[in-house]
Amino acid sequence: MKKILVIGGGAMGSAFTIPCLENKNVVTITEPYSKRFIKDLSSKKKFHSALKIKLPSKLKFRKFSSDLLEEKFDLLVIALSLPGIDFIAKKLRHKKIKTPVLVLTKGLKYISKDKKILTISENLIRNSGIKNVSVLKGPCLAKELARKNQTSVVIANKSINFAKKIGKRISTKYYLAEFSKDVIGVEVCSAIKNIYSMIIGAGQSLNASSNLFQKSILEMIFLTKFFKGKEETTLGLAGAGDLYVSAAGGRNSKMGSYLGKGYTFKIAKKKFMPNDTVEGEQLVREIAPFILKKIDKKKIPLMVNLFRAILNNKKLKFS
Ligand SMILES: NC(=O)c1ccc[n+]([C@@H]2O[C@H](COP(=O)([O-])OP(=O)(O)OC[C@H]3O[C@@H](n4cnc5c(N)ncnc54)[C@H](O)[C@@H]3O)[C@@H](O)[C@H]2O)c1
Predict the structure, then answer these.
(1) Residues 125 and 198 in one domain
(2) In this model, does residue 319 exceed pLDDT 80?
(3) Residues 121 and 235 in one domain
(4) Which one in 14, 23, 236, 240 has a CA-CA gap of 20 to 30 Å to 178?
(5) What is the rounded distance in angstroms from the CA atom of residue 150 to the CA atom of residue 140?
(6) Does residue 37's CB lie within 6 angstroms of at least one atom of ligand 1?
(7) Are residues 130 and 230 in the same domain?
(8) 242 within ligand 1 shell (Cβ under 6 A)
């Protein structure tokens, strides 16, 4: 029995507690940011308004504080969305915490002063001083995991044995873990799939989307290798696997479908998705300046066309 602290009470953080509890861990969840999730998690019923289920009564809720991070846990799980990463890195800084960290967040960070793109684990290691950071990614819709639908994910750490140790603590019959040493590849794939699922969503028929799917995989392989990840990772759960689920349903591909119909990003957002976070768009704004400067545009024509459409608010064209 291990003590796990999940930081982030959104859909994914909350769903993740379910297999962890079932695997007989003592699980605490905390929410630093959203009043809505604090209300859900601190209520007696523990009804989660995003997952639309009642969370297990064994799940403990604690108010977020810096002191909580210093308590004795066996694993800290970060399930905040991308804007929460700098926040939590600052909170962890100077605390000399030795607890291993597992990151569920998907995305990449552009560090303007170094003119470099970092993965989230690289960013956390650099800004928080935490040394042992693993990542868990893959095709996982939080709502499906919360309903115990079979889900497979990949856990990556430079030490495969450590990744397996985490897998043993959190997996169940329905939450299955694979393992990888390619931390960078897993993180790059799980981030850029948000961009490529928007591109696939722009296809206006299954035939057209399938063509975009195949070309997206080729661009993902190129980009993963550019960032020093492995080609085989792109074809695994964090790459092709996650691309499939995101393209089949999800906010990025929904936005892509409006772009494919000829709407500009701003109009589509305002008209159809005013309250939705489109993670692919956030990532475009984060990484586009670097990619457009440093990478041969001919190698990634789909991504470059999507950048142009979003950054210049122009119609999306694949030419
Ligand atoms: N690894 C996986 O298997 C997996 C699966 C699905 C989603 N995800 C990723 O998990 C992350 C969270 O997704 P979700 O579906 O729970 O989203 P959500 O919108 O339901 O929750 C977002 C979480 O981030 C926090 N947050 C948002 N802005 C913040 C800020 N500025 N400062 C601090 N905290 C902030 C919210 O309070 C909340 O806890 C995303 O990066 C998503 O891509 C991972």
Answers:
(1) no
(2) no
(3) no
(4) 14
(5) 9
(6) yes
(7) no
(8) no
